[in-house]
Amino acid sequence: QVQLMESGGGSVQPGGSLRLSCSVSTDTQRPYCVGWFRQDPGKERDWVARIYSGGGITYYAPSVKGRFSISQDDTKKIVNLQINSAKPEDSGMYYCAAEVGYWCPQLSTGFSFWGQGTQVTVSS
Q1: What does the pLDDT look like over 54-67, one tens digit per residue?
Q2: Dist. CA 89–CA 107, nearest whole Å
Q3: Rounded CA gap, 69 and 13, in Å?
Q4: Which of 60, 81, 92, 104 is the most exposed place for a label (fewest CB within 10 A)?
């Protein structure tokens, strides 16, 4: 079982930076994948970035590569998403998700555990 809690959302001007954090609570000894997803009202959750705890391998959606950075702390219980050079299209509800195992899914359907989300608004 995995519990997730996001924090750090808010408003930022275009070109600005924001850091989101996902607190991961689990007793599992297996590696797991943590992903960040963005969702606009009435639309599906789009994958943004993900990181595999077993080695810290990272993956980014093309739309955010070079601007977003996903990282985990030494305990692997905090996963941060650094948003730089923010764009209005980055706005949305951001969710972190986790899947335990030896893979790192890309689609939202591949993740079993989800946080409640945190809102990001990029606007001048």
Answers
A1: 888 999 999 999 99
A2: 20
A3: 18
A4: 60
